[in-house]
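Key idea: predict the complex, not the pieces.
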Amino acid sequence: MDLLDDLTPAQREAVTHVQGPLLVLAGAGSGKTRVITRRVAHLLHSGIAPESVLAITFTNKAAGEMRQRIDALVPNSRVWVGTFHGFCARLLRIHAKLAGIDSGFTIYDQSDRLRAVKDVMDQVVGDGAGITPEHVEAAISRAKNELVSPQVLRTRARDEKDLLKARVFAAYEEKLRTSSAVDFDDLLVHVVSILKNHPDVRAGLDRRYRYVLVDEYQDTNLAQYAIVRALSVDHPNLCVTGDPDQSIYGWRGANLANILEFERDYPSCRVVKLERNYRSTKNILSVADHLIRFNRNRKPKSLVTENPRGAPVELTVYARETDEAEGIAGKIDSLVREGEFRFSDIAVFCRMTALTRPIEQAFRSAKVPYQIVGGVSFYERQEVKDVLSYLNLMANPKDDLAFARIVNVPPRGLGKTSLDHLVEAARQRRIPLLAMARQAGQVEGLKDKAARGLLEFTGLVDELVTLCDHPAEEVIRQLLERTGYRTYLTGETRDNGEDRLANLDELISAAREFDQDHPGASIHDFLAEVTLASPIDRWDQQTGTVTLMTLHAAKGLEFPVVFVNALEEGLLPHSRANDDNKQLEEERRLLFVGITRAQRELYLSRCRIRTFRGQQQATFPSRFLEELPAEPMEHHDRSGVEPPQRVAGPGAGGWPRRPEPYPRSRPGPREFRLTTAAELAGSTTAGRGGPAGATGPVNLDALRPGITVVHPQFGIGRIVSVEGAGPRRKGTVAFAVGEPRTFVLALAPLRPIGGTAGQDPRPSEGGGQNNR
DNA sequence: GGGTCCTACATTTTT
DNA sequence: TGTAGGACCC
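Result:
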C-alpha cells in the first residue's frame, strides 16, 4: 500500500519530511499517532537504517502500540521505541562507569525513594523539624527534574526548611551512591551528565540516533529536554509532536516552554499544524474549544471536524456522590441495553483515584462490568515488592533498602532492635548491611540468636545468588520455595492470604512472559522492566468492560462514550491549584483532555453534597462549567433540590455548620442555573481570561465579621474576623473550600453577597431562573 | 521479638 | 476513609 494515500496535505507534509527539525502541533484527535508511525515507515522506505531511528513516547503502553503499528507497516524493523526512562536505563547500563555508578545498579521507584528519605531524615534531622519526608521527597524530585544539585539547592535556600531539605537531599544522594542505586529521576539526570561531560559519547549517540522522534513533547521536563537536544546537535533531524493544550504534567516538572519555543531552538524547523479532528462530534469539539479558550498561555488554535453534530453534551447535577454514581451506572446500562454501545466503548474519568470508589460500588450493584486503571500498581503490592526485593538484593548486594525490607520476611526473629544494631555497625564501618550481616558476630550489642539469624539469612542470599543466571521465572519459583515465602503466605489466613498467593502466581506469569520476550536477559533487565512498568500498561481495551480511570491516565486514549464526574470546585480544579493561575490552566487542560477523549457522547456531572474522606461537604460547581458554551449542552438537575427560598437563614448570618440533606423524596427535573463564584462576583462578562476582579467599588463598611463574601479565585466564604482600622484593615475569611485566608480588605477583590447577613448563602444552590 | 490495637495523619495526578 | 507508625502487652 502507499503510505500517503489516505492522508491530508498537512499529514502528508509531516510524513514525508525527512531531513531537519520538524514540529508537529497536533490537536486532539487529529491523527497524530498515524502520522508518526507513517513517518517512521516512510523513513525506513527511503533507505534509512532502522538502528538510526529512535522513537520516544511517554508511556510503555504508547510505546508498545507504536511498535506494533510500525511493525504492521514495516515488519521486523528493529526501530527502538520506548520511554525516556527505558531508553536512559538502557544507556546507563552501558555507560554506568561514566556516571560514576555500578552497571549493576538498582532502580528505586517512588516508594523506595520515600523510604530512603525517611531513613536519611532519621539520621540527619533527628526529629521532624516541621518538614515531612513527603515534602522533602517532592523537593528532591523537583530539583532533579530541573537538574539542580544539592549544592545549588542549598544556595537557593530561603529559610531553615529549605536548608534542611538540601541537607537531606545531599545525604540521600550519598545513600544512593553507597547502595549502587538510582532513582527514577536519576535515570535521566545521569544520562544528562554523561552527555554533558563526555562529548565523544554524546557525538557517538547523536550519530547513531540520527532520526529522533519525541511524542507528547509538551510533557517533557528540563532533563528530558536536555537529552533530546544533546542527541540532535550534529544531526538535528528531530521530530517532536505534541499539543500544548494537553500538557498536564507541569507538577512533575514538565515545561510547556519546551514545545512553545521549539521554533526558537531550531529556527530552521518546519512546523506542521494538524487541526482537523477525526475523533469527536461537532458538539463535543465545540465544548472543548470553548473551555480551552479561557487559557491565556497558549497558542490559539482552531479545531474543526467534518463529523456530524452529534448528541448534545449532557451536564447532570445530582444530590450526592452515590446518586451520581448510580446515575452514571444507570445511564451506561441503558446505553448498552439499547444496543448502540458495548461496555468497552465507555469510560469514566475522575480527577483522583479516590473518586472512583462510589462509582465502583454502583457498578457492582448495577452489574456493570468494569476495570479500573491506576491506583496501586501490581508491582507495588506488598508481597510482590517483597519478592522483588529479594531479586534486588541478589542482583545488587549493596541494596540496603532491599535488605532491610526482607531480612525479616518471612519472620526470622530479627526485630527492630537487632536491625538498629546492625545498621549502626554497618554505618560505622561504611559497608553495606548485607556485608555487615556476614560478620554478625562483630556487631556490638547483638544477641546470639539474632546473630545466628543474620548468618542464616546471608547463607540464604548466597544460595539464591547462584540462581541469578537462570530465567526469571525459575529464579522466582526457587526463591519462593527456598525462602519459605510461599509457605509463609499459605499459613496467612487473614490479610487475604489467598489473593496474595494469586498475586505471586501472576508475578511468575509475568516473569515467564518476560523470559519469552527477552531470551538471555538478566535479572537486572527483568527488574528494570518491572520497576518502570505502570498500571496503565496493564490496561486492555478489549476486555468487554467499562474503563474507570483518572483524567491523567486517559491522555492518548479515545472512547465512543465518556463520562467525567465530580465537576466541583476543589476537585476539578483541584484545591491545590486554587491560588495559582498556571496550575489553574493546567486543571483546565486536564478537563480539556477528558472531553476530547470522547468520540460520540459526552456526559459531565457533579453533585451538591459529596462525602469525601469520611466527611460530608456541600460543594460548589466547578468554575469550568461556567466556561462551557450554552448551546450544544443539555442540563439536567436530578438532585431534587428546592428552588431558592428567599427567607432568613438558619442563624444570624450563619454559614450552615453542616449542609442539610436535600430531600430525596421530591426528585424531578428542575430548571438549571449555573452559579459559580466568578458569576457571583459579577465577572461573567469578563470573557476570555476567566474570572477577573471585582466590578466596582465595595463599601468597606460592608465587610464585617459574619458577612458572606465571594472572592473571584477562592470562591464563597464568610468573614470570621477583622483586625485593625483604616486602609490597612485586614479580614480573615473562611472559605467553603480550602484554607482560611487573610486579606487587606481595601485591596482584596472581596464582594459581599446576598445583601443582608441573614440570607442563606448555601452553596451550590440551584437558582430559580433559567440561564438561557 | 512480635503481634495487636489505637491514634494521628494526610489526602492529586505517575514515567 | 484509609494507612502508617507508636504504644502496649504477651
